[in-house]
Specification:
Structural class: alpha+beta
CATH superfamily of the largest domain: Jelly Rolls
Helix content: 25-40%
Shape: globular
CATH class of the largest domain: Mainly Beta
Number of strands: 13
Radius of gyration: 18 Å
Number of helices: 7
Order of helices and strands: EHEEEEEEEEHHHEEHHEEH
Distance between the termini: 46 Å
Length: 221
């Protein structure tokens, strides 16, 4: 199998227990393609021929609004699946945030496996439920929370996904974070400063966050 030149489809996150072992979706064969930072994996409107898994790196899934603004709907890390569409075309676009290795599995192969394997079909259902729950939570963040609440929620989310010893290494830029949270980049930077002054975090570099008080972040979120 040759890797597709460009990828195509929205997303679905594999539960942690599934991603930990090479079975189910993670065991399906696929072509591995490397993407450089900011390279497009698939575009909105592209044919949705494949389901994708992040082998390494970070991916952003987004849409461009009618006024030209970018709205990032999700970030995907190693072990995550994305590009699972219900229609024939992608409703979103996806790009590599960092250098990435992406595994592309033909959508038809996934569909046939689901029809023949009840356990595999159940795993897909779990992934869809996890995606829906994440989308609902993100919608509430955008619709109901202040800038402080949004940034605190984001840091707690990243802490669950990528922190080591209370240190978060952020692969995404401040602009990415702003587009994910529906804020301006100036507001994101100002809120990081506010959290630093309150002793909740330290920011030794633009891509590193040291968590000093997750309790404060949880209360703020």
């Amino acid at each position: 199998m040759t890797a597709p030149a460009r990828f195509t489809a929205p997303y679905s996150r594999i539960p942690a227990a599934v991603a930990a072992a090479p079975h189910g979706i993670a065991a399906l064969p696929g072509a591995v393609t490397k993407y450089g930072r900011n390279a497009e994996i698939f575009g909105e409107g592209d044919e949705a021929e494949f389901v994708y898994r992040v082998r390494s790196g970070t991916v952003r899934v987004y849409r461009i609004l009618s006024d030209g603004r970018r709205m990032i709907g999700s970030f995907h890390f190693a072990g995550d699946t994305f590009g699972v569409e219900t229609g024939d075309e992608h409703s979103t676009s996806a790009e590599a945030v960092t250098d990435c290795e992406i595994i592309a599995t033909p959508r038809m192969a996934v569909s046939r496996r689901a029809e023949a394997d009840h356990a595999f079909s159940h795993e897909l259902w779990q992934s869809a439920v996890a995606e829906l729950a994440g989308a609902r939570k993100h919608m509430l963040v955008l619709g109901c929370q202040s800038a402080l609440e949004r940034v605190s929620s984001f840091l707690l989310e990243m802490a669950q996904r990528s922190s080591v010893g209370g240190v978060i290494s952020l692969p995404m830029s401040r602009q990415d974070i702003a587009d994910y949270l529906g804020l301006t980049i100036e507001t994101v930077s100002r809120t990081f400063t506010q959290l630093t002054e309150r002793g909740a975090i330290e920011v030794p570099s633009s891509r590193t966050i040291v968590l000093r008080s997750q309790a404060f972040l949880r209360q703020a979120a």
